[in-house]
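Example complex used in Figure S2.
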Amino acid sequence: MAESHAILDEHGHSHDEEHHVGWKKYAVIGLVLAIITGVEVAIFYVDALAPVLVPALLVLSAAKFFLVVQYYMHLKMDHPIFGRVFWAPLFLAVLVVIGMVILFKILPTYGVFS
Amino acid sequence: MATAEVHVHTPITQPTKKKSVIWDWMTTVDHKKIGILYGVTALFFFIVAGIEATLIRIQLAKPENAFLGPDVYNQIFTMHGTTMIFLVGMPMAVAMFNYIVPLQIGARDVAFPRLNALSYWIFLFGAIFMNFSFLLGAAPNGGWFGYAPLTSTQYGPGLNIDFWALGLQALGVASIMGGVNFVTTIIQLRAPGMRLMRMPLFTWMTLFTSFLLITALPVFAVALFLVTFDRFWATNFFVMQSGGDPMVWQHLFWMFGHPEVYILILPAFGIVSEIIPTFSRKPLFGYAVMVYSGALIALIGWGVWAHHMFASGMGPIADAFFTISTMIIAIPTGVKIFNWIATMWGGRIQFSTAMLHAVGMLITFTIGGVSGVMHATSPHDLQQTDTYFVVAHFHYVLIGGLILAIFGGLYFWFPKLTGRMMNERLGKWQFWIYFIGFNVTFMPQHWIGLLGMPRRIFTYSADLNLASLNMLSTVGVFIQIAGVAMLAGNIIWSARRGRVASENPWNAATLEWATTSPPAEHNFNQIPTVHSREPMWVEADQVRASTLGPMEPHMHMPPNSYWPIFTAVGVVATFILFMTNIWWMPLVGLVWTVIGAINWAYEPV
Amino acid sequence: MGVGVWGVRSGQTIHKELILATAAVEHHHPVHPPTATGLNTWKVGFWVFMGSETLFFGSLISIYLVYKGTSVVGPYPSDVFDIPLTTVSTFVLLMSSLAVVLALDFLRAGRRNLALFWTMMIIVLGATFLGFQAYEFTHFYHVGLTLSTNLFGSTFFVLTGFHGAHVTIGVIWLLILWVDMFRGKLRPENSLRLEIAGLYWHFVDIVWIAIFTLIYLME
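Predicted assembly (938 residues):
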């Protein structure tokens, strides 16, 4: 990667070490994200895995979700209040999805509607 | 008080030109002025909704009445419900959040003052837009919960439902922004030493209400978008011929609609939790439990929505689930009632007008809560649903709960807002007249409902033998009108002639009473440091030394801005322009909004 | 009526002028009171807003899932979805998130050219994603799937359309920031502006992670 020292920050530091660690970690996470996506698509195309398609995809995409939120959005390192104001509504959003699926897709299969 | 004259400073610069008062209010970002704008607007719509209620009751006063036709009746009851909830209940609460919360937590303003102004202007324009429909004779007529397929173009042709869906969409945007603003304000702007568990209960309830606003309103926004797209872009969400399911609307609506009930009542709990300790001369009983029960109500409030839908055939599993969750939510609510009673127990109770309203609220809200537990039981509800019993129930919790608390809060905080006391003698007369009128109106409706009168039907047969109870209910409305007129008179008279108020006329405990009445633009000369839950009882001298002492040297208050009102025009226009039926017209409003937003972002503050 | 009744307060206008005059002395660095948490208020507010957005997209996704398989006429998802194509566009959006963290890192480290490069990469990748979406939408249109064809069309276009609108807003936002960075107005000291735009971008990305799995792969 081309080194550019165009601007140092106000205090004259260049934060070299700090950011060196940063981009490597980010690149690794980017690679992991790409690999998980590849695995997801692979599972999709392998007929033998059809029975586990839904749970496998849910786990894998949840993993991607958490990687982005925890590392790219820095929730892991940041102040816990950011996590609280995000996870609490997200929890409700997941409940909305689960609740609607139960009400419209799962309960009817028990034949209690007729 | 001796410290009443603190701000005697020689102005460094005289204002060069006198700005127009109206322009100042249009561009204000001061949370106190915005709070007053919300309050005055909400009081105006309270009168509008009251007129609508009166028309409904005149129509129902006797059987087979021809005062309003069925078509007008549909419009009137829809707009009465919609107005009371979105244009009265919510903005009244938001008015008090705006005025009181920054003062209670020791802040100079909310976290995002211009966003706050934007919320108000979107709310105002949306409200005007929705009520404009009356002039076209096309007011919304699908009920306040707009059940599909009444909102489809097939069963709801004409502009009526368009006004409803698009107007509410605008109001929802304003509410979400308000919610974000208040959550952030309470997290960020507390005075030094004000830990979370030292915050006044009203601030806590504001936090929970705001949490419900930011979580429930997006669901409603989606539901309204689906209706809007069905009507304008021919989507199929609620079109049954294409497989659309009206139940989807019901679930989405009540997923918003039930948290909405708590959005309305939690502020009332907060107000009562301030009034009762003040006039009992005792700290609130079980402070921590009050906080946790508020949190539980907000959380469980998300899991009870389908108890509005027991009659829709969800099946025994769903019915059982929502019956149980609804009964569970009565527990934290009951805890609150008992804690308020325990706060009064052994206190030196002073029955001021505010306290009368708070105690009255405890009684009527409990009655409404009891009838609520009755139809939490799904078999019971099948008998009661869509009858006047339900109407009686939710008027007991919303008028008897929310509105009485709001009136009480008005008497309580009026001295802070205006620097003058409200007339207590007139206030007590007003309370008793309104309280009696309220009960005369709604108590008979329990029987009217159980005897079989359905709601939302414009008339009823004389054979039902309901004429006398209905007439009694209508008489009650006129008693209520007398009460509201006395309140309006009291406000107007007291704002001009009322006894001048000191900083802390009630000797209350929280920080809003630590500054002048009314507070200066910057609220506090210096932000106080607090060490207790009741700073004005425990450490008043120390707090006053900051709040009324020498001015903090480098204070920065945000200047007025016209970008909020400019941007609000764009936001509301985006929705209104759907009505042109030209697909790109909403984009015009959107571009206007973006121009406003960009200028806003680069405005120096 | 409002102004008249509340006119008691108008005497404070002078007071406000005084405060502003006092503040003007310190105009370059207005003193903002420290916050209760020590955190930046904009960042807290933005996280709260994103919490709210999760409910918006959660509802849209639930509508899609509830109506899945209920269309009474075609085309159905399996007729039109092109998984390899969408995999590529998903990959593009994921990589744009990587570009965000790199851009922010370089901006904070004071490496202006690298920050400019990676910010432009976010914009390019975001625009590429939108291009894929535009292609997909027109393709669906040509095979006879529109908003009003069936429930699949309604739910699919509304869900992915709202997501695409969010991406579009993000692209415009980042373009504005790129210009500011180019003109030297976005610097390490105010990198928070890029951080917040980046949070928004990541949020749009995680919404797509959910959409890709729940809508495309679980057809």
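Chain B touches chain A through 20 residues (CB under 8 Å). The first helix of chain B runs from residue 21 to 26.
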